[in-house]
Amino acid sequence: MIRLLAGVAALALPVTALAEETGDQDIVVTGAGLLRPAPGDGAQGVAVLRDLDPGLGSRIENRLRDEAGIVQFRRSDGRTAHPTSQGVTLRGLGGNASSRALVTLDGVPQADPFGAWVAWSAYDAIRLGGIVVARGGGSGADGPGALAGTIGLYSEMADGIEASFALGSRDGWDATLSAGARLGTGQVAIDGRYSRGDGFVPVAAGQRGAVDRAAPYEQGGLGVRLRFDAGADSRVEASLRGFSDRRDRGVDFTTSRIDGVDASLRFVHDPAGATQWLALAYVQQRDFDSGFASVTADRNSAAPALFQRVPATGLGGRVELRPAIGGANPLRVGVDWRRTVGRTEEDYFFTGLAPGRHRVAGGSSDTLGSFAEWTSGDPQDGFLWTASGRLDRWWLAAGYRHEYNFGGPPISDATFAARQGWEGSGRIGLRWTANGFSLRAAGYRGWRLPTLNELYRPFRVGADATAANELLKPERLWGGEVGADWQGGGTKLSATLFANRLSNAIANVTLATGPGNFPGVGFVAAGATYSQRQNLDAIDSKGIEVSAEQVIGPAVLRATWAYTDARVDASGAAAALDGRRPAQIARHGASLSLRDNGGGPFGGFATLRYIGAQNEDDLGLQRLGDALTLDAGLSWRLSGAIGIEARGENLFGEPVPAAISSSGIVERATPRTLWIGTRINF
């Protein structure tokens, strides 16, 4: 924290509020075509992130890092992190690359259908009106999976044309375009983005060998949205978007590829003071390829170790009703369904460039749930209370894992029994507000079904191997929080105390060290680790989240800080983890941001981020040090339509450690990166 305080002096540029603790999150839902978010979320810690200008190297996952307490499994972003490591969570409920926070786009779940990681590059080509971060689980209307909270992305349809183009360090290019127009009684919008760069060498200086090189990336996406009236107070919305993501890990044979197509159709009827309802259907298609390399200890040669292809599909639907009661809509009732289907196809045991063995593993899952939520009172003054409940029926169809040698007989032909069960979740909350001061309290229960990836797919990271576990049980969370908020003049203050217990927490548990042959993974080399996904007894997490905001003339200064004390409760084969901090969870996280209000021709921003030290592995043998980074930018609007901008990432050039292997090889996150470009809108 001393390093964070010392860096405050570097904030010399004027900036606007990055986010706002509020119950008025409706302001960002412009053009999203949704019924307005339930005011019941105001009984929990809520933040609204605005000013999400795309382009010039900016990325959604990095903007989320500005809100302390949001933790992504890797410190590196979607240009260099392996796609399967991009899970997101809140409140210290980490230790697993699968997301424990529910990410939605206009109400549609966004986690990968197979592995529940998040393809952040898919949102770079979407014009977003804002992001609502609701901390804490149990909101029945959000659906299962919102253990740690919900990160709601809300799209916004352009009215006119907005474009940007920028050149950056290491031959980086970044171009965006959003165009929208009226179409009869409706509206049409097209959004696109293309970015590329030669990348940087991920391995830390001093540990590199002949195999290490820069890791290039190339990413792009295109989407079209239609919105038109369908009678009084009704509208139909359709969305179709696709994206392509190519990354490299800086070593031969480590290229990854993600191609995705999403489509949704929504009918909304939301008259003021009358019964409101919506119907939603959506489909997600993902095709993911990735290569993995075996690198010698001196890092002077590499060979292919595994090639993986993961096709997956997500389907879902939702119907929600908000009946008119006393001229308002305090009640939400509905049903939703989500199905995931996927498999992993892997070639491994290479001799030279030829694989010797093949594996196919996968399955499907279904969740059908019903929910009801009542919110009563005035969110602006007096008492507001909310209560919600949800009941889900889940099914895991028979899974499978088949392995065989090319040209030989099967090695294994395993089929895993189908399973099903019931899970309940819910939330109660209370908020009292008077003269700008609020007190709030909430208690909640949530749950998450194991992903197909966790159940059926073994994997390797370098020489370390982790086995799947088809017997994993659903995770279950009990939690609560109390908080206070104050707003007066240009000042806003917020503080929240929370405590959570995540039972059956799924984690990668280290069981042995090579050399040797181990169940589910085969041979593990000397010095490498053998792990298995297992249900821990629990993860207990408690802490505090604080934010402060102050208007200073034409600028706003905002600070956030989160302290998390998370501990593993484990026994049996995982007893060695008992009392340890979960992997990838730091005690401290903080940010300090200054941003102009956009009222003049000159503008800019500066954001300091601090992330505390954390363990890379479950046993705490590999430790990632803390890091302090500075991002900043300047803009000059030459006319009403044209402006020029310059921005920089990690201007300190901080060597941010993002991962460390069992052999001690450190991977770093983005080094100093500079961008200059132009932005046009008319």
Short recap of the structure:
The longest helix has 5 residues, at 2-6. The protein is globular and about 70 Å long.
Care to describe what's here?
The protein is an all-beta fold and 682 residues long. The chain has a single domain, classed as Maltoporin, Chain A (Beta Barrel). Helix content is 2%, strand content 58%. It is built from three helices and 42 strands. The strands form seven sheets. It has a 22-stranded antiparallel β-barrel. A six-stranded mixed β-sheet has the order 1-2-7-8-5-6, with no helix packed on it. Strand 10 (172-183) and strand 11 form a beta hairpin. The model is unreliable at 1-36 (pLDDT under 50).
Note the topology.
Blueprint: H1 2-6, E1 19-21, E2 46-49, H2 60-64, E3 70-72, E4 88-90, E5 102-105, E6 108-109, E7 128-135, E8 149-155, E9 160-168, E10 172-183, E11 186-197, E12 217-229, E13 234-247, E14 256-269, E15 276-295, E16 302-322, E17 331-351, E18 354-377, E19 382-396, E20 399-405, E21 410-416, E22 419-434, E23 437-448, H3 452-456, E24 459-461, E25 464-467, E26 475-488, E27 491-503, E28 506-513, E29 516-518, E30 522-524, E31 529-535, E32 538-552, E33 555-569, E34 588-596, E35 602-611, E36 614-615, E37 623-624, E38 627-637, E39 642-649, E40 657-660, E41 666-668, E42 673-681
Parallel strand pairs: 5-8, 25-31
Antiparallel strand pairs: 1-2, 2-7, 3-4, 5-6, 7-8, 9-10, 9-42, 10-11, 11-12, 12-13, 13-14, 14-15, 15-16, 16-17, 17-18, 18-19, 18-20, 19-22, 20-21, 22-23, 23-26, 24-25, 26-27, 27-32, 28-31, 29-30, 32-33, 33-34, 34-35, 35-38, 36-37, 38-39, 39-42, 40-41
InterPro entries: Beta-barrel_TonB (IPR000531), Beta-barrel_TonB_sf (IPR036942), Plug_dom (IPR012910), Plug_dom_sf (IPR037066), TonB-dep_rcpt-like (IPR039426)
Signal peptide: 1-19
GO cellular component, one term: cell outer membrane
